[in-house]
Each structure stands twice: as C-alpha cells, then as structure tokens.
Write a structure and sequence with these properties.
Shape: elongated
InterPro entries: AlaDH/PNT_N (IPR007886), AlaDH/PNT_NAD(H)-bd (IPR007698), NAD(P)-bd_dom_sf (IPR036291)
Order of helices and strands: EHEEHEHEHEHEEEHEHEHEHEEEHEEHEE
Strand content: 15-25%
Organism: Dyella choica
Radius of gyration: 22 Å
Protein name: proton-translocating NAD(P)(+) transhydrogenase
CATH topology of the largest domain: Rossmann fold
Enzyme class: translocase
Keywords: NAD, NADP, Nucleotide-binding, Translocase
Structural class: alpha/beta
Number of domains: 2
Length: 366
C-alpha cells in the first residue's frame, strides 16, 4: 500500500494558503505516493480542484481517516486531530509554544508531529525553512501596505507642478522579512534605511542599496536571532532611535522571534516625537507588535502618526506563498519517506529537533 499524503482546507480566519499545491502534488505522485485532498482545499489560494492532476478528493472525514501524512499550513483544530488514526505523521507550522493543550492532543492520539518552525537555522534546512519563505512574503506585503497608506509618494517624481522628493523609509529588523521589505521599498523608489542590533546584517542591508542606520548598540546572538538587550543597551538604543525617527516618513518594524512576544522597540514617546503624517507598519503585530501603540489587526491614530498592525500577511499573497510553503513541505517529507514507507530518521537533527510528539511521547516543552 502506498503512503497517502493529505491536506485539508485551512479554516483559520483570513487564511487562504494551502499546504499542497498542484506542482508539489505532481512531485509526490512521481515518488509513488497517493495524494488525497479535501475538496476545494486549494481554491482560496488560486488552485481549484481541476488544476490538480491525478489527485483524489474527499470530505474532511475521508481525508482524516485515510491520511498517513497530514500536511498543514496552520495547526489543525482538535476535532481534526482526533479524527486521525494513531501513528499518523503531521507536518506544518504547529505553533507548539504555549500550546500545551494542542501538544497534549497530539500525544494522546499518538501522532508523530513535526513543527517546521522548530527547524535549526542551518544551510541544509533552508530548502524546508517555512519561517523564511513566509517571512519573505510578509516583508514584501508590509512594504506595499506602507506605500499604499503613506500620505506621500514613495519615489521621487518630476512633474509640471515641480519635483516631489522621495519618502524617507526605515525598516527595523534585517531578517528575511526586513530584507525583503527593504528590497521592495527600493524597487518602489523610496529613500531607504535599515536597522538591526546584529552588526553582521550591515552588509546585507547595504547590498540592497539601503543605508545602515547606526545606533551604537550591538546584540549579536545565536541561531540567526539577536540576544536580548540589557537595560542599559535598550535605553541607549531608544534614545538614539527616538532622535533619528523624527526624519522618517514611514517605518516598517519586523523584529520577531518564534514563540516569544515581539520586542517593544517603539515607545509611545518615540511615536509622539515623529512628524505629523508619519506611518508605522508593524509586521510583528501577530505576536504583540514592536510598537507600544500597535493593536493587532487595527489602525491606530496617535498624535498625527498612523500605526497599522496587519495580521496574517503571508496569507494575503496566497498563491505564491502556498507555492513556496508546499515546496518546504515536500523537501521535509523527503526526510521522512524511505523505501516507500514512513521511516523518519531521528538521528537526523532536522527530524529530531522539529519533532513535537512521537508515539505518545512529548518531545517539546510547550
């Protein structure tokens, strides 16, 4: 019997992505695997059932009853998890941090669950790094939102009514999302600067044609993330940033660490010091926001400054986001399937470190 790889239609509010695209379904079939999807699983992402070749479709109950490997974008709800047979493998963004109830359900059903956001940030893991692929989408969309909502043009324009100077834009955080935001602002013609507490990001920021904002605070960490600033470092950072913020027309903040609340970088006082008409787009709104005034999913006006806290940014470009995400899933699945059977190699650090539960054992401390 061949392995059945399955996916359901995502049901979270605003979620339009799908874990298996027609391209990846074809690759899975090429490996001799059976693909079973819920009807209309990919429609919201731009993939109607007719776009999938040699794929079977069924109801939610049929998919859950027959799945050997269930791929997901966001964690399935408890009803879906309890509908799976014991021993099924679940792969996706399972958000295990602070989700003890979900982890308990995975364990009680004796499901082997892999949370791809737990993958080590190594070169070998890049092909299956869902955080990076989806952050690139989020960074791109955050800057488009900034350009759409800013009261000024981003590029310099020469018109019969005179020359319009370009907007001055700052991106805080130079991870994947931040760098994509910088690149997008550059394409849109803005005068762009980037800032990160990790000094090694300077070269990446400057390679995109942006100026690196120097605040005199360094917090190089491990695993691709910055270490937590000391109180003295944070005070020095905020003092220097508060003065420089006065010159910017738009600020996009992108600082986030999976499983933790987003660091507060922009205080209320700093926002009050910005120029009237300035705009902040807080990409970290999903995890609480980098600005003290951010309200997730809302638009806030404070002292003439607009603060936007958009949610589920990657889901807003579902076709390309799904294509990248599904490729991540496929590349990880190759580590799980050997000789036509599901045989994860737990001596492989990518498999071991991303595993949340295995045969009833909890391997992750939620």
């Amino acid at each position: 019997m061949s392995i059945t790889v399955s996916a359901l239609r995502e049901t979270a509010a605003g979620e339009r992505r799908v874990a298996i695209t027609p391209e990846v379904a074809k690759k899975l079939r090429g490996k001799g695997l059976r693909v079973l999807l819920e009807q209309d699983a990919g429609r919201a992402a731009g993939f109607p059932d007719a776009s999938y070749a040699d794929v079977e479709f069924g109801s939610v109950a049929e998919v859950l009853a027959q799945a050997d490997l269930l791929a997901c974008v966001l964690p399935p709800d408890d009803t879906a998890l309890t509908g799976l047979r014991e021993g099924v493998v679940v792969v996706g963004q399972l958000r295990p941090h602070g989700a003890a109830s979900r982890v308990s359900t995975l364990s009680q059903k004796k499901l082997t669950a892999f949370a791809l956001e737990l993958l080590p940030r190594t070169t070998r893991a890049q092909a299956m790094d869902v955080l990076s692929s989806q952050a690139a989408v989020a960074g791109y969309r955050a800057m488009l939102i900034a350009a759409e909502n800013a009261p000024k043009f981003f590029p310099m324009l020469t018109t019969a009514a005179g020359t319009i100077r370009p907007s001055r834009v700052l991106v805080i955080g130079a991870g994947v999302a931040g760098l994509q935001a910088i690149a997008t602002a550059r394409r849109l013609g803005a005068q762009i600067e980037g800032y990160d507490v990790r000094p090694e990001t300077r070269e990446q920021v400057e390679s995109l044609g942006a100026k690196f904002l120097e605040l005199g605070v360094s917090a190089a960490g491990s695993g691709g993330y910055a270490r937590e600033l000391t109180q003295e470092e944070r005070a020095a950072q905020q003092q220097a940033l508060a003065e420089l913020l006065k010159a910017f027309d738009a600020v996009v903040t992108t600082a986030a660490v999976p499983g933790r609340a987003a660091p507060k970088i922009l205080t209320t006082a700093m926002v009050e010091g910005m120029k009237p008409g300035a705009l902040i787009v807080d990409l970290a709104a999903d995890s609480g926001g980098n600005c003290e005034l951010t309200r997730p999913g809302e638009r806030v006006e404070h002292g003439g400054v607009t603060i936007l806290g958009p949610l589920s940014l990657a889901a807003g470009a579902p076709l390309h986001a799904s294509e990248m995400y599904a490729r991540n899933i496929y590349n990880f699945a190759e580590l799980l399937v050997r000789d036509g059977a599901l045989r994860p190699d737990f001596d492989d650090e990518l498999v071991a470190k991303s595993c949340v539960t295995r045969n009833g054992e909890v391997l992750f401390n939620a």
